[in-house]
Amino acid sequence: MGTARPPRAARAAWLAAGLLALGTIALDQLTKRLVEGSIAQGEERRLLPGVRLVDDRNRGVAFGFLPGHHTIVTVVIGVAVAGLLAYFLRHATRPWMWLPTGLLVGGAIGNILDRLRDGSVTDFVKLPLGWPPFNLADAAIVLGVLLLVLVVEAPRRESA
């Protein structure tokens, strides 16, 4: 007997999530290399009113938490991504589930690549009011978490 193939909708969701993750990784890595090649560490350049480009190295996780523990952080992020993929395996056909999955996986891998290569993550977007610098992978992760909550909660709201 052959192994059962996943339904077409599940295959399409995996493909969409995978392509989005790859696109997120590519765009994240490209922007980080562009910043590293054009802005010196510590330098700031105005992009838009209130928004500056910087070249900042984050040796911790979000907002610099746990600096110097990139091995532990990488393992924890890897476990979280594995958990997300296990959830996606069971719920891939849920409407829009591919979108937060692709963003979260792509963002996590984009930052993991930096940690493995440099021991830190390159952050380059600096907003006003003391907000810590961030990068496109961080933005994808934040957007992915928000969308994941919406996608997971949508069936509960519809049934209520």
Outline the structure in words:
- With 160 residues, the protein is mainly α.
- The protein has one domain.
- It is 61% helix and 12% strand.
- The chain has 4 helices and 3 strands.
- The chain has helices spanning 8-38, 70-91, 98-118, 136-159; strands at 44-48, 51-58, 121-126.
- A 3-stranded antiparallel beta sheet has the order 1-2-3.
- Strand 1 (44-48) and strand 2 form a beta hairpin.
- Helix 2 runs antiparallel to helix 3 and helix 3 runs antiparallel to helix 4.
- The chain is elongated and about 50 Å long.
Name a few traits of the molecule.
160 residues; mainly alpha; 3-stranded antiparallel β-sheet; 4 helices; 3 strands
Give a count of the beta strands, DSSP E runs of length 2 or more: 3
State the secondary-structure class: mainly alpha
**Total discrete domains:** 1
The helix/strand series, from N terminus to C terminus, equals HEEHHEH
Radius of gyration: 18 Å
Helix amount, in percent? Answer: 55-70%
- Can you tell me the residue ranges where pLDDT is under 50 for at least 5 consecutive residues? none
Largest sheet: 3 strands, antiparallel
In DSSP terms (H or I, runs of 4 or more residues), the helix count works out at 4
Strand content: 5-15%
Overall shape: it is elongated
What does the average pLDDT come to? 88
Distance between the amino and carboxyl termini: 43 Å
Strand order, biggest sheet?
A: 1-2-3
